[in-house]
């Protein structure tokens, strides 16, 4: 491509263990869990009755929506996404301008898996009760997948590409790469990127029925999500949103913006459900290829990666993921980078997983720390036969480092990998 | 319920849908929902639902299509109230 460099100048987050950057930073440093018991899941007879859900007060929500928007708002994903998105914009030092013209040079790629699932349920019940007229005007904008971005772009007055991507659990990481490419190709100066995921029984039910969630920790929610642990028994569902302002380095420097990190590059691909790949299992060759192509795209060498933020959901696939990283990086058990999974604290935030976990990754690079893995003191021997235990921090490590790799893998055999670099000021 | 009372109730109903405070204060028969109160046309269906609930009436599609001004809306409400 060309020599345009892309940096991250704003962050926003709505996570089960923190709904502001400050709160979230503290939580991930301390290994604070956001997993709680969910009475509604218990009442509905779910096998897994614990989940990660952001805690937001009415007062906080009303800072982001007009009273009219709040009247019929029944889409948690839109609430999380708008809060994270607007917070990221503000964090970047950007203002909401009420100009006649939109900001032609700024856009947004904000992904989701579904939108407004509670609103959708309400609408379907109304229709079946022969009350179609009572739907009013709020159903479409809350249930269309791009609803979250329609709210965000309207509030910010964005005039560049405004689009919603969807690639299962790879959605969040992919959104950053798409926004990066938009700026890199010279078509936009600033792009909001991120993703969101609804809360509640109607989004999590399908996973519960597939028996991919743990049912063994209903009495101890905080211990339920156990990536890389011998006693990992399925993921804990989560929800929330993460958001980023990506910007050309030229623009960021010109307006003296705070720069968190540089996006060096990345790659998205699919295993095509060929080989060992299926609808739900990743094709290892594709995962490895995604990582090696991301490294190539970023213009770095594999051994420059110091920290990996894994997908690591707390299923039997964790060891396979580590093996894929090891092969892709051509590393030994000894020189394998540090690896961590935020899912131990917040569960698997489905379409928001990649973005929330990337917020954590960017904070690690910017502030110089590696957050602890929780709930894996009993490491899975399949993993420790591949890499050294010291690669899996159990306590906070304060350390300045330069390059982090983040990957997310999703149903449908899709993969995304990003390479982020600490920005060297001055 | 007379016309003045209906307009008063109508003003209450449209309040959350408009940011045109002075037009709302001076609401009268000639007020147009879209040009004067700058109400988003998509919200007109929500206003009709609020009216149905407030006055306990049912408004058919043909009547709904005419409800663009206070005058037309009051006439439709009066007709439905009298019919009931």
From TrEMBL, chain A:
Annotated EC: 2.3.1.41
Source superkingdom: Bacteria
Domain Ketosynthase family 3 (KS3) span(s) in chain numbering: 3-422
Catalytic activity entry: a fatty acyl-[ACP] + malonyl-[ACP] + H(+) = a 3-oxoacyl-[ACP] + holo-[ACP] + CO2; (3Z)-decenoyl-[ACP] + malonyl-[ACP] + H(+) = 3-oxo-(5Z)-dodecenoyl-[ACP] + holo-[ACP] + CO2
InterPro entries noted in UniProt: Beta-ketoacyl_synthase, Ketoacyl_synth_C, Ketoacyl_synth_N, PKS_Beta-ketoAc_synthase_dom, Thiolase-like
Sorted UniProt keywords: Acyltransferase, Cytoplasm, Transferase
Family membership: Belongs to the thiolase-like superfamily. Beta-ketoacyl-ACP synthases family.
Name this polypeptide is given: 3-oxoacyl-[acyl-carrier-protein] synthase 1
Automatic annotation (TrEMBL), chain B:
InterPro entries tied to this protein: ACP-like_sf (IPR036736), PP-bd_ACP (IPR009081)
Domain Carrier positions: 1-81
The protein, known as: Acyl carrier protein
Organism for this UniProt entry: Pedobacter fastidiosus
Lineage of the species this protein comes from: Bacteria, Pseudomonadati, Bacteroidota, Sphingobacteriia, Sphingobacteriales
